[in-house]
Amino acid sequence: MRFISRRMHSPWLDIPLADYEGHMSLPTIAQAELLAAEFDSLLREHNPSSVAVIGCAGGNGFDRISPETTSRVVGIDINSAYIAEASTRYASLIPNLELYVADIQQPDLSFEPVDLIYAALVFEYIELEATFHTLKSICKPNGILAVVLQLPSQSVASVSPSPFASLQALGPVMHLVPPATLHAQAVQAGFVLLSSRRLALPSHKEFLVQVFGLPTANPAVQGALRDKAAQRP
Question: Which of 16, 50, 173, 185 could lock 128 by a disulfide, CB 3.0 to 4.6 Å apart?
Answer without folding.
Answer: 185
